[in-house]
Design brief:
Chain lengths: 522, 335, 364
């Protein structure tokens, strides 16, 4: 590691930013030393992304100043940021999928009206960069054909090609398999050792501990603490983020599985383009157990969950609920009927599917149960009952603010998720399908949600959990099925497996694939 | 206002020695145009021209109004009547119901309507025998067509336009019993009055099928018909006003419908106190319709043709030729 | 559909202040145009307001126009709530008018109290039927409803011309229109109806259809926000994926929304034909179906807003007519320009002032 020079690479002084009533950044001070990996953690809405957007010139701060290498700098737009040596790798890649890697890299930096000379220059430069930083990628491949991990490398190459000395990465591991994430961290360490400065924004404390030198914690728009990573712990960081003590692990007793409640047989699901996303999956879930499906995002878990929930048509196979076949290839199911049969579903994406954001909370709180006679008087909805019922659910799940008439969109992510959970759990189903229950949810709320799911299990319900957060699967699941490329590639007990082995299975290089679901079939 | 009254007074003094006529000279005529609007290059504009000529000749101001929708007809007529405008001229057959209603409400005010009949003691109904004028241009077209094929392009497909077509065919057959007539309507909506491109294409297809002369009764759409005739080096026939000058030597003649004359006439009658209610049918005999002969087309009209047209005109006026009116029974005897 | 910034503002600002700002901007620009042609803008505004509200007959005309706009505005709004853009109000109203006329012409032996509901049913049924095909194509075949409804406007227009020119016309009649409805088959004028209970009003085309329009507003409000069916319809409009999740079929809701939309548009014939013209004639819809889009937008899909917006447009129509009567230099084309500017500012540029307003409100 190079010795940090006197002036920090980046210094923010008193950065302040408001959006309407929201005070997104409150007088933020931050010093990022040269040649370090500096982590920034905080809950959703803590202001991390706003701060980085100001640094990159997407927003202008209302107050405060930015110093780059000790010089006060005004970053009016992203071009100015690039000129100042800042490179940004966004959570959602800014790549043209139909272009080659080379074309993406030179896009916006072609250096003239003719492409050929710029491309030739870029080719040699890229070869050099790739060697130096272990950023191997086929520069003539079409970006859309590359795996996610390699697309991310293209983003990093883009920034470096533009001469970035300071690299900002926003939630870079969201879509990566554990081996890909490890590779990324290797690259980051290499970059740091070559004297680059790296800012890593994440909500995963494990990554902070693994790769950063220094970590800053944000809460509710303010910078609440700076720590040397070596001198802190995950528990301390979590407490700093939330503002109170947090249990990262929820205790649970061993499962006592009962009768089989949900069985899936040889399920196949095709997407809208006819591509098979779920390939011959069989599984079963018993009363009183949580079955977790682990896998990297996009390996068919979402489609599997939606097919069981009756939202997607089956290409083949069948679903049996409480011994009764509810969906086959010929006879698709419908979510309304499944709810009557005791199946509840917390969808992966609450914004897209679980809630209707422009509706009042009480209206979102009956979504899917709008036909329930309890909520109806003749053709009319009984709003008095609906509002009262919502208020009760809000109390039980500690939804804040507990105002049934507030627009759904006005709640924070965690509280929105609690509304969905309250709706599905309070209906007392036999089977609960849960997708990404804590995605975008504050750490404080995660604990409460996890407790609820375990309580469901202990009440003798069957829970099928899909999550891309390995920690979550580990913590909650009694059995873990690993899904890769549309198939279940292995099954392990919830407490028996180490993460390295799981990671390999998720990447499809499973050693123990022989166990695939066999034990669970009748 | 005082200036206008002063002016009117002078006109009275200069123009009419009889003092009893002074009241009549104070007329305040008003016009309610049809949906097409004042400057439609056709029917409504003819009325506007007549009114302008009246104003120029007499110095009497008039008021006018362009309606925007059907329910404004009544409103506009009533507004004028309430303000004491007299006579009030309603342009177009669509106004009939409104005129009938408002005329009942204001029995002392004089109303006139062009192109329709309203049976009220204070309404003058002015209609034209378009079939007669069309008959004569049909005779001319038939004689000018060496191929023995002629065409007709109508605007919107309504009975009135079929009346034009029917008279035209009768005239053509009268001159040449074997003549072949192509007939097209531009459309079924109001847009058919202002689609010169489509008019041109319809005419072109008729020329392609061998027609030598094409007659249009299609308002603004007809501009395209006449253009197509000029482009194809064939002949067109204009309508309503004299359109011979549009393409000199390429417009055989124009079927004249003298709404301007009718407008001026009814205003003058009101002024002179000779205005009478009831039906006023303007045919060939009354010079309400006719055909145009000027220096632009005199080379095209041979003496034989002129003689035939004149004879037809005289026979129709005398009643020896009866031109069937399509609108009498919604049927044309000649196909 | 509303930009993110709108969510930060209080309701009175987005629903009250913003439309007023838009209207003001439209009037300022119109004022400039008026200045250019050499009239006094203030005088024009005075005449416009006087012409629309200055005397009983004027108010009657204004409300008569508003009645038509309420029907077409509600029609557009109900489709909006389901996420559909029904441009076909014009054609649905046209065919709906045919339904009204058929009832009035064929069943005119019946007493009015029996005939009126039948005429409403006729208009609604025919209007809904005309919306059915575009709705079906959207719901089950994925053809975009904007395109198909526009096409159906043309087909409606051509069909009506054919019927009136060839079938329903009275022989010997110049005008392509049906015979007049008999006295029993006419919607009583408001001044007649109220004279019966001793209230004296100036004669105007305002008729009892206005009452039906207000009842429709109430039914609309109940349906959209208080019934299970309205909930399902709004769910599809706000988030079709979530609707599928909830077991609500977007295709089915598309059908329902479009049929109701067509039925509401079809009621236009009650006001125009049964109420005023007393016969079926060509193009009686007069573009009201398209004005309904602006009315629904300005009214934010809420019946109260739609009534207010409909009265605004009614006032523009009536006041505009009086205006061009008083000032011959303000031709009907000028009036159309002013109407167009209001539609432009209130509809297309709906959120133009939003950033400005947001900044300003935050500072205060």
């Amino acid at each position: 590691m190079k010795e940090p020079t006197a002036a920090p690479a980046i210094e923010l002084r008193g950065i302040d930013k408001r959006f309407g009533n929201v005070h997104a950044n409150r007088s933020i001070d931050l010093r990022v030393a040269h040649g370090t990996v500096h982590g920034i953690v905080g809950e959703n809405g803590a202001g991390k992304s706003t701060l980085m957007s100001i640094l990159y010139g997407f927003y202008q701060a209302d107050d405060g100043e930015i110093l780059i290498n000790g010089r006060p700098t005004v970053v009016r737009n992203s071009a100015a940021a690039i000129a100042a040596g800042i490179g940004m790798v966004h959570q959602h890649f800014m790549l043209v999928e139909t272009f080659s890697v080379l074309e993406n890299v030179v896009l916006g930096a072609e250096g003239g009206a003719l492409l050929a000379p710029g491309k030739a220059r870029a080719r040699t430069e890229l070869a050099h960069l790739a060697r130096e930083y272990a950023l191997e990628v086929d520069i003539d491949a079409t970006v859309g054909d590359l795996p996610v991990g390699q697309q991310q490398r293209v983003e990093i190459l883009k920034a470096l090609y533009r001469g970035a000395e300071i690299l900002v990465l926003d939630e870079p591991t969201g879509a990566l398999t554990p081996p890909e994430a490890d590779h990324l961290f290797r690259i980051l360490r290499l970059l740091r050792d070559q004297g680059k400065t790296i800012i890593l924004i994440t909500h995963k404390l494990r990554e902070i501990m693994a790769v950063t030198d220094v970590v800053s914690v944000m809460r509710q728009g303010a910078m609440v603490a700076h720590r040397r990573t070596a001198e802190t712990s995950m528990e301390e960081l979590a407490e700093l983020m939330v503002g109170r003590k947090v249990l990262l692990r929820v205790e649970k007793t061993p499962a006592r599985p009962g009768r089989e409640v949900l069985r899936v047989e040889h399920l196949r699901v095709a997407d809208g383009y006819g591509v098979e996303r779920v390939k011959d999956v069989s599984l079963s879930v018993h009363a009183g157990e949580i079955v977790g499906i682990a896998g990297v995002s996009g390996n068919g878990q979402s489609e599997l969950l939606e097919a069981i929930a009756g939202i997607r048509p089956l290409a083949d196979g069948r679903v049996v609920l409480n011994g009764q076949p509810v969906a086959t290839r010929r006879r698709g199911s419908d979510p309304r009927k499944l709810r009557h049969l005791g199946l509840a579903h917390v969808p992966e994406d609450r914004h897209r599917m679980g809630l209707i954001l422009p509706f009042e909370a009480c209206e979102s709180a009956i979504l899917g149960y709008q036909d329930d006679p309890r909520f109806n008087i003749g053709p009319f909805l009984d709003y008095r009952t609906i509002v009262a019922d919502t208020a009760v659910k809000m109390g039980a799940f500690d939804v804040r603010p507990s105002d049934p008439h507030l627009r759904t969109a006005s709640f924070s992510g965690g509280n929105q998720q609690k509304i969905v959970l309250a709706r599905e759990i309070e209906h007392d189903p036999d089977v609960l399908l849960v997708g990404q229950p804590t995605r975008g949810v504050d750490i404080g709320a995660i604990e409460a949600i996890h407790r609820r799911l375990i309580a469901m299990r202990d009440a003798g319900k069957a829970v099928l959990l899909v999550s891309v957060e390995l920690d979550e699967i580990h913590m909650l699941a009694d059995r873990i099925l690993v899904m890769s490329n549309g198939s279940i590639v292995g099954e392990v007990a919830g407490d028996a497996v180490d993460e390295g082995q799981l990671g390999l299975m998720m990447a499809g290089i499973a050693p123990a694939a022989s166990a695939a679901g066999a034990g669970t079939m009748p | 206002m005082s200036k206008r009254m002063f002016l009117a007074a002078i006109i009275v003094i200069l123009a009419t020695p009889v003092t009893s006529m002074a009241v009549a000279a104070d007329i305040q005529p008003a016009i309610v145009y049809d949906l097409g609007g004042k400057f439609d290059k056709s029917f409504n504009e003819g009325v506007f021209d007549g009114a302008s000529a009246f104003k120029k000749n007499t110095g009497i101001e008039y008021r006018d109004f362009e309606i925007q929708n059907d329910s404004q007809r009544e409103q506009a007529l009533r507004n004028f009547a309430r303000r004491g405008n007299d006579p009030i001229l309603a342009v177009g057959f669509s106004q009939a119901a409104a005129v009938e209603k408002v005329a009942k409400e204001f029995p002392t005010i004089h109303f006139a309507i062009i192109d329709s009949m309203v049976n009220q003691p204070n309404v003058q109904s002015i209609v034209f025998k378009e079939q007669e004028g069309s008959f004569v241009v049909g005779v001319l077209a038939s004689m000018a067509a060496k191929s023995g094929k002629i065409g007709f392009v109508g605007g919107m497909d309504i009975p009135l336009i079929r009346r034009f077509a029917c008279g035209y065919i009768q005239g053509a057959r009268y001159a040449n019993a074997n003549v072949e007539v192509f007939q097209n309507m531009t459309g079924t909506t109001g847009a058919a009055w202002s689609d010169p491109v489509k008019g041109g294409e319809l005419a072109k297809s008729q020329f392609d099928r061998g027609a030598d002369v094409v007659y249009h009764a299609a308002g603004g759409t007809g501009i395209g018909v006449l253009q197509a005739a000029a482009d194809a080096n064939k002949l067109g026939i204009g309508v309503d006003s004299n359109q011979n000058h549009l393409h000199p030597g390429k417009v055989l003649t124009s079927m004249l419908k003298r709404v301007d004359v009718a407008t001026q006439q009814t205003f003058m009658e009101a002024r002179a106190g000779t205005w009478k209610p009831g039906l006023k049918v303007l045919g060939l005999k009354e010079n309400g319709v006719g055909w145009a002969l000027d220096e632009n087309n005199k080379a095209l009209i041979t003496p034989t043709m002129k003689a035939a047209a004149d004879k037809a005109t005289a026979d129709i006026a005398a009643g020896t030729i009866q031109v069937h009116d399509y609108m009498a029974d919604n049927h044309c005897p000649t196909k | 559909m509303t930009p993110a910034a709108a969510r930060e503002l209080p309701r009175w600002a987005t629903a009250g202040l913003l439309p007023v700002l838009n209207l003001t901007a439209a009037f300022v620009v119109s004022g400039l145009v008026v200045l250019v042609i050499g009239e006094d803008p203030l005088k024009v505004v005075r005449l416009l307001v006087w012409g629309a509200f200055g005397f009983e007959e004027a108010i009657g005309y204004t409300l008569y126009y508003a009645t038509s706009f309420i029907f077409t505005g509600l029609a557009v709004a109900v489709a909006f709530h389901c996420g559909l853009f029904n441009i076909g109000g014009e054609g649905q109203a046209y065919i709906g008018g045919l339904g009204v006329a058929l009832v009035c012409l064929n069943l005119d032996g019946l007493p009015f109290w029996l005939l009126a509901p039948l005429a409403i049913a006729g208009g609604a049924l025919f209007g809904a039927a005309w919306a059915y095909v575009p709705a079906y194509l959207q719901a089950y075949r994925g053809s975009h409803v904007v395109i198909t409804t526009i096409m159906f406007n043309f087909i409606a227009s051509a069909t009506m011309v054919y019927l009136l020119v060839n079938v329903m016309i009275q022989p010997g009649q110049m005008q392509p229109e049906s015979r007049a409805f008999s006295a029993d088959a006419r919607m009583p004028f408001m001044h007649q109806a109220l004279a019966g209970i001793g209230i004296d009003l100036a004669a105007s085309p305002l008729n009892l259809s206005f009452v039906w329009a207000l009842i429709c507003c109430l039914l609309f409000w109940l349906f959209i926000w208080h019934t299970r069916a309205g909930y399902a319809l709004r769910a599809v409009g706000a988030n079709p994926t979530a609707a599928i999740y909830a077991g609500i079929s977007p295709a089915r809701q598309t059908m329902i929304a479009m049929l109701i939309s067509g039925a509401l548009a079809g009621c236009l014939g009650l006001n125009e034909l049964m109420g005023v013209q007393h016969r079926l004639l060509l193009e009686f819809t007069g573009g009201y179906g398209f004005v309904g889009i602006a009315v629904a937008l300005m009214g934010r899909g809420h019946p109260l807003g739609i009534v207010l917006a409909a009265i605004l447009f009614g006032a523009l129509y009536q006041g505009g007519a009086e205006l061009s009567f008083e000032l011959p230099r303000i031709t009907r084309d000028m009036v159309v320009v002013i109407q167009g500017l209001i539609i432009l500012f209130a509809g297309a540029l709906e959120f133009m002032f939003l950033p400005l307003l947001t900044r300003w409100l935050i500072r205060v």
